[in-house]
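1st attempt posting a full record on here, be nice pls
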Amino acid sequence: MFGVVYCFFKVVTNNKIYILFLHIKYMKNITKLFKKQILLEQDYPGKYIPSGNIVNTSRLGPCTGIVIYNRKGKEAYAGHFSSFNRGSCDIDNNINNEPLLKNILRKSISKFGDPKDLEVFLMGCNEFYDDNRGKEEILSKLKESGFSSSNIVHRWNPNWTCSSHMKFDVDTGKNEYVLHGKDGDIYKGDIRNAPIMFQTKD
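the predicted structure (as tokens):
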């Protein structure tokens, strides 16, 4: 009637009834407080993240963060891995003799279906080598598995003085990516809009 929508809740405590009226514009912020934030542990198998959760990659220096997002199902697979920057996707940190990268790609395709319909977000990965082979190998293996280049967003750390992390809401696809420099934050916002400060061959 007045262009304002309210929700009300009945709360019973100490035999008294309280009616709470909340402006609908604040409801999203309130529900966000109750979402579980899943902090990724280094070098564990990629985790399945169902709807209702927020992925936190934790701080990434030489480590690589990956989020494989199924927008239709509002779900994701995510991981925080240390070996990728050494050009060793097929060597280090195997899970039952299956490399970590191959493991998370296989599981995401098995659960979500056609990889061309999935979005992939990559960040971190300070290199031990000047030839960038770790970053390029990750991208190569994604494409070999059928992921579309147009759906892969990567924002690599530009040098050893930088680190990064991202929080990703699987319900909405909204995220907060932060690139940290030695003198403070260089960028904070959606990873899709972050400047490309380190370019690899796509």
